[in-house]
Predict the 3D structure of the following.
Amino acid sequence: MKIGRNDKCWCGSGKKFKQCHLPIEEKIAKHYHQGDEVPTRELLKTKEQIEGIRHAGKINTMVLDKIAEVIKEGMSTEELNKIAHEYTIELGGTPAPLNYHGFPKSICTSINEVVCHGIPSDDEVLKSGDIVNVDVTTIVNGYYADASRMFMIGEVDEEKQKLVRVAKECLDLGLAEAKPWGYIGDIGATISEHAAKNGYTVVQNIGGHGVGVEFHEEPYVSHVGVRGTDCLIVPGMTFTIEPMINMGVAEIEEHESDGWTIYTADRKPSAQWEYTILITEDGAEILAY
């Protein structure tokens, strides 16, 4: 859509285009002509969309806080699912995973060697020594936010504790690289370097993603990358960073029958943390954690 310099900006701010998104779009165009991969205008969220995603993020974080309060040894993952589902509804949200492409539950619970997309079950009971990722995505007034945390149950051995800690360090190092006018490849590079330094591998087949107006949007956020490559990071983008760090090999396998659960190929433990972030003029704002 062609907009004149003195027309109102497409984002709905009420400002003239030249005073709002024109400088950003001119900078994007310069990168495009240099051969960089750049985001489309649709990936730059408006002020209204950002406020909607920010609110969804607050609700999503409250649900994860509730999980943190109640999770313990002896609970089934279905109990966690029920608590998260009911609390999300109470807060005015909708659990995004429920019935998404047929997924049967409201959250994902991934224990030990399960990398992601674990399906809560009455038969799956948390025991001392387990590490578990709880992944929550919430829709509020049509906007999405997505985050996950690791929880350690009872007495967890030092090897697993280190894996959980390093996975969180990878996430935060990736966050520090999510800078305006940097590149998605910068995020993946620092994550993979830190994981390797600690003797771990990074899942390459699954990554972060744009989020906010839809559950999954562009860009794809790889957690293995090369600095200065992949999509340009621009103010107004919202996406997740969610590195999956494996104690053993990077390869993964899908459960043969349920079509969702992803395991490490060697059945060694995996850990993951996830943020939804907004790119601002100054850096990155965490919207859900």
Notes: The radius of gyration is 19 Å. The first strand starts at residue 94 and ends at 95. The CA atoms of residues 178 and 284 lie 6 Å apart. The chain has a mean pLDDT of 97.
